[in-house]
Each structure stands twice: as C-alpha cells, then as structure tokens.
Write a structure and sequence with these properties.
Blueprint: H1 3-30, H2 49-53, H3 61-93, H4 99-109, H5 112-118, H6 126-131, E1 132-135, E2 139-142, H7 144-151, H8 154-158, H9 163-171, H10 189-208, H11 211-262, H12 268-337
Helix pairs in contact: 1-3, 1-11, 1-12, 3-11, 7-9, 10-12, 11-12
C-alpha cells in the first residue's frame, strides 16, 4: 500500500476517533448527538420511523433515506479528515513533551517492574531510554548501542559542546552516577539528554537520505504518529469525563439534599435514582474504556518510538563504522602505493 494512502487513512481514523470520542461523552452524559453513531444504525443514524412512513414527492422513501445516509457519510468523512489533521498537528506540537502528562500516569499507578516489562515511557526521554538504562534505582548505564556510537565518536560529531564528555563517560569502566550537577569528569542528566537528542536528529536526518532506510522508518513513523495522537485524545477525553463525573455527582448530591429537605421520603429515590444509576453503571464503563484506549495507545507509542530510535541510531552507527573502515582501507592503499 502506498505510504500516502496510509497517511490519509491514519488521518481519517484519528479524526473519526476525535469526533466519536466527543459524541461518546455528549451522548451518555447529556443525551446529545453529533452523528448518531451511538443511537440508531451503526455508523450514522438514518431516518426515523415516522419519516420513513411519510411519502415524499419526487422519489421513494428508500431512495431518500439512502441519499440522506450518503450525505451524512460524506459530511462525516470530510469532517473527520479536517479534525484529524488538526488533532495530528496538536499531537505533533507536543511530541517531545508527550511523557508529561500523558505517559507519567502509568509511572504513578503501576509498579516499576510492570512499566519496564511493557516498555512504557516514564521519566526519561524516549531517546534516552534507547541509549541508556537504569540499574539499581537512578543509576544510568549505557546500552551496547550507545557504546558503539561512542566508539565512532558520533556524540562529538552531533554535539560539539558536550559530546566528548559523554563519550568519555561511556567509555570509562568505572563510571560516575550522573545527577543534576555537571562536573568535568561526569556529565549531568540534562547534558546526557541534550547530547542524545542532538545525536538523534543528526542520525535521523542522515539515515533519511538513504532510500531503503527512509522507506522502513517512514512506515514506523506513521504508526508512531497514529498511536501518539490516539493516546493524547484518549487522555484528554478521560480527564474531561472524570471532571464531568465530579460535576454531575455534585449536582445529583445537591438535588438529593434539596429533596431531603423539601419532599417526602417516598419520592426522594425516584428523583435521583436514574441519575445515580447513570453515574454508577454507565460512567465507570466509559472511563474504563477511555483509560484502556489510552493505555494501549501509549504502550504502542513507546514501542514504536523505541523501534524508530533504534533504527535511526543503529543505521547511523553502521554508516559511521562503514565510513571509518573505508577511510582506513583507503589510507592503507595509499600507503602501499607510496
């Protein structure tokens, strides 16, 4: 499938999720509809029963129902594309800060072993997690990929300011523990993160110039953008629904207290029973569903980000090693000729 067609499909799905997520909250909280997806026919609501019995001049009821449904579908598709483009732009704007607050929810409610097992994003940037790992609490150590990049002096190439210090730290057997403070022999956490970020963009731009690398990484990036957008939308809708629950619960409780003062004991349950049923049955299901969508999307985002970063760093490391070997070979050949 062509990448352009895939991107259009992803944009449409993001827009559709945005619209239907909003309608989910409006319909179950306020009984309001935008497309009729959650009422009537699956997808978009058709004509009402009374409308279908009414004879319209110039065509049959079946033809008019079909034309109306086609028009509704066309409007929905166009609106989904427009909203999808906007949602993707917003998620792209907050790409580098997606772990705050979207992903640190997992860090607050889940144990570290489960977070690490699922590869969920936590307090460190995704590029940092690709190159370094935590052992024994807050102690960072380089992974093999970071060691390979340090051996080819890739950090110095992309980050002239702190790259050499980072490479010395990586190549040192008895490493210090990076903290918020920076020393001549020990880089700070911010310096590590900045150097990793600069190397990432340098490696990405370099590998994107190679057609085979570009095609493979572009496919991953499409999935990454989709999961990031869905994670952001699901989190926003989850927070919005949670706030609405608190507002409705306060309102229902207030009405119950008023009825307790003004009405008889017999009719009080009838006044608030339906509202409490909605809060105790429908709302928890909606909140759970939105949170599960967020959880799965942020997990997919973390996995796709790691795969993309590994390829950007790995392919660049391979290119550096190949270039270094080629230079050595040319130097040897030149020496033999001399």
């Amino acid at each position: 499938m062509d990448l352009g067609l895939k991107e259009l499909g992803i944009t449409f799905m993001v827009g559709a999720f945005t619209i239907l997520g909003l309608e989910l909250i409006l319909y179950h909280f306020f009984n309001k509809q935008l497309t009729g997806f959650f009422h009537g026919r699956l997808g978009l609501s058709g004509s009402t029963e009374q409308e279908s019995r009414t004879t319209q001049p110039g065509g049959t009821n079946e033809d008019q129902d079909e034309n109306e449904l086609t028009m509704r579908a066309a409007v929905f598709i166009g609106l989904a594309f427009a909203v999808g483009v906007l949602a993707e732009d917003v998620s792209e704007k907050y790409r580098d800060g997606l772990h705050t607050p979207f992903s640190n929810v997992a860090e607050q409610v889940m144990p570290n072993s489960l977070i690490q097992g699922l590869d969920l994003p936590v307090k460190y940037d995704a590029r940092m997690q690709t190159l370094f790992r935590e052992i024994g609490g807050d102690r960072l150590v380089p992974k093999q990929l970071a060691e390979e990049l340090a051996r080819t002096k890739s950090f110095s190439l992309a980050d002239p300011v702190n790259g050499e210090k980072v490479e010395r730290w990586i190549n040192t057997a008895n490493r210090c523990i990076p903290t918020k403070l920076s020393y001549e022999w020990c880089p700070s956490l911010s310096e590590l993160e900045q150097s990793a970020s600069k190397l990432y963009y340098y490696a990405k731009n370099t590998t994107f110039a190679v057609e085979n690398y570009y095609d493979e990484m572009k496919k991953i990036q499409i999935r990454l953008d989709f999961s990031r957008s869905i994670a952001m939308l699901a989190f926003v809708y989850f927070v919005a629904a949670l706030l609405l629950v608190l507002i409705l619960l306060t309102r229902v409780t207030f009405r119950f207290l008023i009825s307790l003062i003004r009405d008889s004991v017999i009719i009080r349950p009838a006044i608030v029973g339906e509202s409490y049923r909605k809060l105790l049955v429908k709302v928890p299901v909606i909140l759970l569903g939105l949170f599960l969508v967020y959880f799965v999307a942020i997990w997919a985002y973390a996995r796709e980000s790691d795969e993309f970063n590994k390829r950007a760093f790995g392919y660049f490391s391979t290119m550096q090693i190949t270039s270094e070997l080629t230079s050595k070979k040319q130097a040897v050949e030149k020496g033999e000729r001399d």
